[in-house]
Design goal:
The complex is a heterodimer. Chain A contains 15 helices and 10 strands. Chain A is an alpha/beta fold. In chain A, strand 5, helix 4 and strand 6 form a beta-alpha-beta unit. The longest helix of chain A is centred in the middle third of the chain and has 19 residues. The radius of gyration of chain A is 24 Å and the shape is globular. Chain B has 4 domains: about 110 residues, no CATH class; about 70 residues, no CATH class; about 45 residues, no CATH class; about 200 residues, Uracil-DNA glycosylase-like domain (Uracil-DNA Glycosylase, subunit E, 3-Layer(aba) Sandwich), CATH 3.40.470.10. In chain B, the strands form 4 sheets. In chain B, strands 3-4-5-6-7 form a 5-stranded mixed sheet, covered by helices on one side. By secondary structure, chain B is of the alpha/beta class. The N terminus of chain B is likely disordered. The interface between A and B is large, with 97 and 91 residues.
Chain lengths: ~400, ~475
């Protein structure tokens, strides 16, 4: 058998990486190549260089160093019992591919993950070496995201943080029981500890050093994680509880939700069905409510019968329908917190309302001009010349809003 | 109805190019300061621009506009709408009497300005994303050339982005109306070009297409979501877009195939990997009551499931100190920092505690410190964790560990820091503020000294009160030292 070409390896090792949802290249420190004369920049906002027909953004070259793996996690295409084709990139090949793609403006940078071969430290050391070569030998200032292997040594993680913009460790499943059942070799305790250590390291490096008074660069894009949704029976409430815990405990920048996708040569312990994409979407919306809309995790689903997000309507509207006593909200008087809770008003629209009402009172038409769907907003607000009257408490309210929304839906 | 106008405007302003913002700004300043209304100006672009007949700025006249208007206008100026010159002048005209206009998001002109800016920003963002360089030449002749078709006049505006990003290579971006060229040192904006002026191929594209094809997950087909972000108008200049129709057409079958394919027998190497790396599964949870040393006990506590608090915490935070310590300090529960570090009393309250012990002459190295509850109980609030008080059931569940710790260490004295610790050590709730400074002897003979938790000092804001409370706690610790000696 002849050795596989780079193109063949790329096919195997990008196919193997596609189940990781994260592709963000935003939120890192600003840097460019003006001084170094090298290649690459990150300017805060990430750039999606292409989109695959699955609607996902392609921002980074997302590949595995190898898909050989000693773990046997049943949800993973690369588990040791799988008959998937295996391949392994050399460090040189990954560095060259990254630079060749970046120079042609195909990508923002590299997202490198790997199956674990031989030992966690050996695998992690190779990934760190890729990042080191890119930064020091290629003078590369683009984005680098390294997946951290939980069991690897603290020194390697420290080096990884020196070169990477973001580090991540996947919690994989929302509960420890789920991890133990589907990924028997993984230890949820170790995953938590790794995240805790990363947070401590980031906080330590954020302090100016005594001697130079400078802050050392350490993963300026923070850490993130991914949870697979729908591979076990955890409810949305349980998933969001885990997210809230992770955000609070380890200061994650993002928790990614990945609808469990059937994989070729799947394990029999998993549901074989189409991935629950709408559920994934609703979880992201609920996640946004916690991060940008002032919702605490328990209140998002408080009062729901089964702890599951409503698939037909967004979580804020569902919450408002369950908490109608808090409405209507007066658009001309309510504070920012109350406005953010109105269905159909996003953070930008709320900022516009607050800016405009300092100069004149807003009528319903005014709100209609700056928000996307006044049908959704109308029952929940009071504006100049408008009061929803009995509309807020109308029994069939949900249906009158759902229908127009369904037509607008992308899915 | 207005009569048809043929150059009836009093002033014809000719700008040097579609992106001649400087020219527009100069003309607009001169006109607005001479009270020339928007209806009296006709704007156009001409190769031989001439603004000689515009009125000059009257002596001492000053134009005051909100600072951010210039920025907004410069962005909107790149829009391809031919009416933008007149529109921006009208905004300027209105701003003199309505200085807050830009803050009124519901005003039609403000909304139009915002929409134009948004279109320009989006087009710029898509240019950053969708420019595709092709390499020509090798070695010192190596250059990267791209053909791009923007909707608006954004080449000049975006050239710096490409300079910052591709400083170390020589590149040229060609568009129908302008081109940008970077030779490694200098940026030059030149005339427009045609698609045929750019190279037709690049060997690396085959790899890029391979990547595009394989990173796509056919089980998640969402064509509309893709097209929303990558509209078809861009496809003709994106090499990967040629794959899209076939990927979509084959997706359903590929996805069904993934689901239908039954699991096969494990790969041949699997058994070997299992035998080598995972020789035996974790032993069943070691029974935790046969620990005969503190370190064995600490090991056993790692997997504690006696109450549900382990679920949200990072780890068990066990006691720390010599196993022959004469005094054991018992706190309430680990906090945020302790939970991360796995050690008791390392957070803010721990630092206060350490400092006061030091002042009292108690050597922390010689005492054992632990907590009534060994997992951190909290409520997440954004990026913070708000401490919650452990309930009686949780304290009760964890008394098992405290009991074992005391049994193995056999100290002369235990110090209850706060009510939770007192509850744990005495088995009943007591009023700490009333009992503070007292020593209670337990049935088993252990003396328990009662005081507050050092975090109480941290919560006082008034400096004098804080200092007084610190002093009281210091006296308590001095008494502990005397009791230790006794």
């Amino acid at each position: 058998m002849s050795a596989p070409t780079v193109r063949e390896k790329l096919a195997v090792l990008s196919d193997a990486a596609k189940y990781d949802a994260s592709c963000a290249s935003s939120g890192s420190a600003k840097k460019d190549s003006l001084k170094s004369g090298g290649i690459g920049s990150t300017e805060g906002m990430g750039i999606c260089h292409s989109y695959a027909p699955d609607g996902r953004c392609i921002s980074l070259l997302k590949i595995l160093l190898t898909n050989f793996c000693i773990y046997d996690c049943s949800y993973c295409i690369n588990r040791s019992s799988s008959n998937v084709r295996r391949a392994r990139f050399s460090i040189d090949e990954v560095v060259k591919l990254t630079m060749d793609f970046y120079r042609r403006n195909y990508i923002e940078g590299l997202f490198l993950s790997s199956g674990v071969i031989r030992s966690p430290d050996e695998t992690m050391a190779e990934m760190v070496e890729v990042a080191r070569r890119l930064r020091l030998e290629e003078k590369f200032s683009g984005y680098i995201h390294l997946k951290t292997i939980p069991e690897s040594s603290a020194e390697l993680v420290e080096q990884a943080g020196l070169y990477a913009d973001r580090l991540s460790i996947n919690v994989e499943l929302p509960t420890d029981e789920g991890v133990k059942r589907l990924a028997p070799e993984k230890k949820p305790e170790t995953i938590r500890l790794s995240m805790a250590n990363l947070r401590r390291k980031m906080e330590e490096k954020a302090e100016p050093t005594l001697r130079t008074k400078k802050r050392e660069r350490f993963a300026p894009g923070g850490q993130s994680t991914q949870m697979i949704v729908g591979a076990d029976k955890t409810s949305d409430d349980g998933i969001l509880h885990t997210s809230a815990r992770l955000y609070g405990s380890y200061h994650l920048r993002r928790v990614y939700y990945s609808a469990f996708s059937p994989i070729p040569d799947s394990s029999s312990s998993l549901p074989l069905q189409k991935p629950p994409l709408m559920r994934e979407h609703r979880l992201y919306q609920a996640d946004w409510l916690m991060r940008f809309y002032g919702f605490s995790q328990p209140e998002i689903l408080a009062g729901s019968s089964d702890g599951m997000l409503d698939l037909a309507i967004d979580p804020k509207l569902a919450w408002a329908l369950r908490n109608r006593g808090r409405f209507p909200v007066d658009i001309n008087r309510a504070d920012r917190e109350a406005l953010l809770r109105v269905p159909g008003l996003g953070t930008k629209v709320v900022a516009k309302i607050l800016g405009t009402r300092r100069h004149h009172r807003l009528r319903l038409e005014d709100v209609g001009r700056i928000c996307h769907s006044i049908a959704k907003v109308r029952p929940f607000i009071i504006a100049e010349g408008w009061s929803p009257g009995g509309l807020t408490d109308k029994t069939g309210l949900r249906d009158t809003i759902v229908q127009p929304c369904e037509q607008l839906s992308l899915f | 109805m207005q009569p048809a106008q043929f150059n009836l405007a009093r002033y014809n302003v000719q700008l040097a190019s579609q992106t001649d913002f400087v020219g527009w700004r100069d003309a607009a300043r001169r006109l607005v300061l001479n009270e020339v209304g928007p209806e009296d100006i006709a704007w156009s672009v001409a190769a031989e621009s001439d603004q000689a007949d515009l009125p000059s700025v009257p002596e001492g006249a000053q134009l005051v506009v909100p600072r951010d208007f210039i920025e907004h206008a410069a962005t909107a100026f790149c829009h391809s709408d031919p009416g933008r010159f007149a529109f921006l002048y009208r905004m300027l005209w209105r701003l003199r009497s309505e200085p807050k206009l830009l803050a009124i998001a519901t005003d039609p002109d403000t909304r139009r300005l915002e929409a134009m800016e948004k279109a320009v920003r989006r087009d710029s963002h898509k240019m950053h994303a969708f420019v595709r360089f092709r390499k020509i030449g090798e070695g010192s002749d190596e250059r990267y050339v791209a053909w791009f078709e923007p909707d608006h006049f954004i080449v000049e505006r975006n050239a710096d982005f490409f300079v910052r990003r591709f400083t170390g290579m020589r590149w040229t971006i060609l568009t129908p109306y302008a081109s940008a060229d970077w030779d490694g040192e200098r940026l030059a904006i030149g005339p427009g070009a045609a698609k045929g002026d750019a190279p037709a191929e690049d060997d690396t594209e085959a790899l890029w297409l391979t990547y595009f094809e394989n990173i796509f997950n056919p089980a998640r087909l969402k064509v509309k979501a893709m097209q929303k972000e990558m509209p078809k108008k861009y496809w003709r200049n994106l090499p990967e877009a040629s794959l899209i129709p076939d990927l979509i057409a084959g997706a359903d079958e590929a996805a069904r195939d993934m689901i239908a394919r039954t699991p096969t027998t494990p790969a041949p190497h699997h058994a070997k990997v299992q035998a080598k790396h995972w020789p035996k599964r974790e032993p069943a949870e070691a029974p935790d009551d046969d620990a005969s040393t503190i370190s064995e006990l600490r090991e056993a506590a790692k997997g504690c499931r006696r109450c549900p608090l382990w679920r949200d915490a990072t780890q068990t935070v066990f006691g720390e100190g010599p196993d022959n310590a004469r005094v054991v300090f018992v706190g309430e529960q680990p906090g945020d920092q302790e939970d991360l570090a796995g050690k008791p009393f390392v957070g803010p309250a721990g630092k206060v505690f350490d400092a006061i012990l030091d002042d009292a002459g108690v050597d922390r190295q010689k005492v054992y410190v632990t907590n009534a509850v060994k997992h951190f109980k909290f409520e997440p609030r954004g990026k913070r964790r708000i401490h919650s008080k452990p309930n009686a059931g949780e304290v009760q569940a964890c008394r098992w560990w405290i009991g074992k710790e005391l049994e193995l260490i056999k100290p002369d004295l235990a110090v209850a820091l706060g009510a939770t610790a007192a509850l744990s050590l005495l088995g009943k709730a007591i009023a700490v503020t009333k009992m503070r400074g007292q020593v209670i002897e337990r049935e088993d003979g252990l003396r328990v000294f009662i005081t507050i938790h050092p975090s109480f000092i941290l919560r006082i804001h008034e400096p004098a009160e804080k200092e007084a409370e610190r002093e009281r706690f210091l006296q308590d610790m001095k008494q502990v030292k005397r009791l230790m000696a006794a």
